Amino acid sequence: MSGTESHGGETPAQALATAKLGIWTFLATEVLLFGGLFTCYIVFRLKYPELFYTEHLKLNRPLGLVNTVVLITSSLTMALGIAAMKQGLRRRATACISLTILLACGFLGVKYVEWSEDFSHGLYPGTNLFFSLYFMMTGLHGIHVVAGICALCWVLVLARRGRFSPEYSTPVEITGLYWHFVDLVWIYLFPLLYLVG
Amino acid sequence: MPDDIAPSPPADRGYLTEKGFLSWACTLDHKRIGLLYLGTTLLFFLVGGVFALLLRMKLMYPGEELFSNKAYNVFFTLHGIMMIFLFIIPAIPSALGNFLIPLMIGARDVAFPRLNIFSYWIFLAGIIVILASLASPLDTGWTFYTPYSATTGAAVTVLSFGIFLVGMSSILTGLNFIVTIHRLRAPGLTWFRLPLFIWSMYATSIIQVLATPVVGITFLLLAAERIFGVGFFDPAKGGDPLLFQHFFWFYSHPVVYVMILPAMGIVSEILPVFARKPIFGYKGIAYSSLAIAFIGFLVWGHHMFVSGMSDVAGIIFSFLTFFVAVPTGVKVFNWIATLYRGSISLDAPMLYSLTFIFLFIIGGLTGPFLGALATNVHLHDTYFVVAHFHYTMMGGTVIGLFAGLHYWFPKMFGRMYSERRALTAWLLIFFGFNITFFSMFILGVQGMPRRWAEYPERFQPLHIASTAGSWFLALGTVLMFWNLFRSLFRGGPAQPDPWGSKTLEWRTGSPPPTHNFAEIPTVTEWPYGFGKKEKERE
Amino acid sequence: MPGFAATNNTVSGVAAQVDGVFLFITLVGLFFFVLTQGFLIYFALRYRRKKREEPAETPYITGSHWLETLWVVIPSLVVLAIFIYGYLVYRTIRTPPADAVEIQVTARQWLYQFTYPDGRTAVNEVRVEVGRPVKFLMKSADVIHGLYLPDFRVKMDILPGSYTYLWVQPEQVGKYEIYCTEYCGTGHSVMRAVMIVMNHEDYGRWVKQEEKPETLSLTKKGEKLTENSGCLACHSLDGTARVGPTLKGLFGKKVALADGKSVVADETYIRESILEPNAKLVQGFPPVMPTFQGVLKDEDITAIIAYIKTVK
């Protein structure tokens, strides 16, 4: 018996519903994991509004914006990939997934440039509370992007082996949901960190 | 006992047939995974128990006798960490939950079997990391309050990752159960025909999924504080040590319901079977599990009344705390009402269940002393708290687990145990427990602080009483485990349904076959239909 | 205040009120205890069946709406009453009178330092006047501690980085123990102090005496300081090793250090060990002693050294 195939005589549609319930529950967990950091953010921003304003100016806003665009685009390619898979357009689907992976790597590349820049300016996680939050939040998000890339690569391998069909594309859809979540977290992180009013 | 089911031949070992290391380490069978968890958690129960006995030995003397205060602090920390993270949180949910949920809902396995064994591996990895961290002594207490935990020995950093892994295992198991209960119920098994153990496990899983990530991030932040000098909890850097306590209790309060709810579920299964009566107020018990899970998320601040948190917050938390008592009370009253006019057989599972209710009532009734603000200020961080949570956690959860072990032992291993030995063990445990922990209530009222290695001499007599009690408790526990362990090999064969129960797990062999049921059963009624309706009797 | 007068706690008014709440909850608890355990045990025995006996016929009772409503509503009202009573007394606990004497408390591993309004300080001992409300304004120099006066039924955590407070109005002369209740490391259980409640005359005399220049001999002063500064919690006078090494016969002895070197315990060494405890750590002991920099004055240390010389 395997994790993705049917149990107890489930049809593929039922198996998909089961898997979706699983991933949604997992995302609820993830929300609370990030919730801890967002709580820290709220507490300390209310306590030290000036610190947050002055410190956030040291971030590279254009690069942050570029990364936002990159990640939103990757969400779009992911959605297109799932749609293509459901229509049985395998080549288009694998192309879309590959593009998503590429964009995700691009995101991490930009992040790398940003962090190196911060380090060279002497800004470390222990510098002050704002940068503690900045590094912890973008770091945890970065780990999720890495996990997402791994999941996407696995899906890509399965897709190339022809394991999916219009009837069965559960792993693609689940990975897609997870990827949208990672994207969504960034949509919150960007204004909170780069655009402190 | 229904005689329409043929006794399975003792030679049929069902899911236990296959032998060898890999057949266990890589199994996808929820029953085997359940047993893996059971073995692992019970091992840590015994290790944690040895630490408890050492602590009690030292506390016979008011001064620095037997071993150093530093060693005492390390031992109570290890006792706490092992009992909480490696025994009591995973014991009933991961061990019995894994074994029973698919059987009880008439499924062939959990929804994600591969995720299930993966959870167990993560659990093991977490244990290994935690044990590795003990290379340097750990003396923070299981609560890890900052700034002490941010400054003391290096073990805390490594341990944080261990706890994170154990937490992840807990989350994935909870997730698996939620999906299993939603999706894989047998035909006809509607929500209100579910066994109450399933209801309690459902509520438990929700808490696991929603609360555990918070402790995960808390320990990551603690590790970051120690590695990178992140200052969220460090007042010198503008952080707030109370924030840590809020985070910690946001998880650790709901998690006490992860510990107690499954035990309540076990008792709700056993009572009707041994009283031969329908459970009283099924919906009340089912909904109260969800109510406890929900209210449990709103009351974490009652651990912090004297922490320096604002008085207004304290008042709100105190108010909310009292309303956990209401659904808990409903369960207790309903259990007692179930016994009314029953035909009660006091076999070991029933005896432990009644003991659960007896001890849990004491644990519950001492709760309002701690929930009320005025008395909490006096009793907080004294032995009163220690006694209270041992009455609920040990007297409640552990006794509930013992009840469940005796009840499902025949199903798990296809063998019976010695009833006489089980009763002797019960007697020792019952008296030992009460001597050990009731003394602590009095110590607490007299002002004895917890986590003290040395104490003023006036507390000594009660400490000696408590220590003496702990020996009886230990003796009883060892005897109980010896009885069960011996029966694994020597016990007589068990019938598929030795107790005359009506839940689905008894409708298959003892032990069950690998795929649980030859044919998935169809459910037509609730599982507590004991007793005769008035009409039928006429 | 609806205080239950059934308690004879005369240490302070607040303590009597807390005991009133305690008594109230105990009585309510006892009622429910007898009720539930009584039925539990009665039913278990009354409806018991013998081993291996066929079950008797039982009625099909699945619940009762009015009973269940009853045991939702009644406990709700009872816990509400307990909450309100507890809250009312808590308000008193948390509201110090405006005329309370403010005493600053600094907690550190593992001692309490008390600073009186006139600037005098004392370690692990605080003297107050009977009948006079006192407010302790507390701050920690390192980790979280607690200050617990069991006889007065009050406690409060002491935090680094922010102030917390606690107040008492002692009504009875005597010595009362102060315990640390928030786990703070190796010396947690020896972190204790006393509150000495004095009558009006004694207190007045003590205030005057303390204001006069020290008339005690140097060694006597040292002895008093050693007792009052919490040294004896970790360092014994009789040769047994506690958290730290003994003071008996220390002076002039060759001491083996943790780094393998050794040093003769002379005035300079003892002084350094008091101000910088971890600079020359004795072999076999943990680096846990707090610094007394800023706690003990220069002449205090001189007196302590003079006293240590006499401990043989």
How would you sum up this structure, described in words?
The complex is a heterotrimer of chains A (197), B (538) and C (312). Chain A has helices spanning 12-47, 49-56, 61-86, 90-120, 129-160, 170-194. In chain A, helix 1 runs antiparallel to helix 5 (129-160) and helix 5 packs antiparallel against helix 6 (170-194). Chain A starts with 11 loop residues before the first helix and ends with a helix. Chain A is built from six helices and no strands. Chain A has a single domain, classed as Cytochrome c oxidase, subunit III, four-helix bundle (Four Helix Bundle (Hemerythrin (Met), subunit A), Up-down Bundle), CATH 1.20.120. Chain A is mostly helical and 197 residues long. Chain B is mostly helical and 538 residues long. In chain B, 66% of the residues lie in helices and 0% in strands. Chain B has 19 helices and no strands. Chain B has helices at residues 21-25, 30-58, 69-104, 113-133, 148-151, 155-183, 196-227, 241-252, 254-275, 282-296, 311-322, 325-339, 348-365, 367-371, 373-379, 383-413, 419-445, 460-490, 534-537. Chain C folds into three domains: 13-48 and 64-94, no CATH class; 101-211, Cupredoxins -  blue copper proteins (Immunoglobulin-like, Sandwich); 218-310, Cytochrome c-like domain (Cytochrome Bc1 Complex, Chain D, domain 2, Orthogonal Bundle). Chain C is built from six helices and twelve strands. In chain C, helix 1 runs antiparallel to helix 2 and helix 4 (218-228) crosses helix 6 (298-310). The longest helix of chain C has 34 residues, at 13-46. Chain C is elongated.
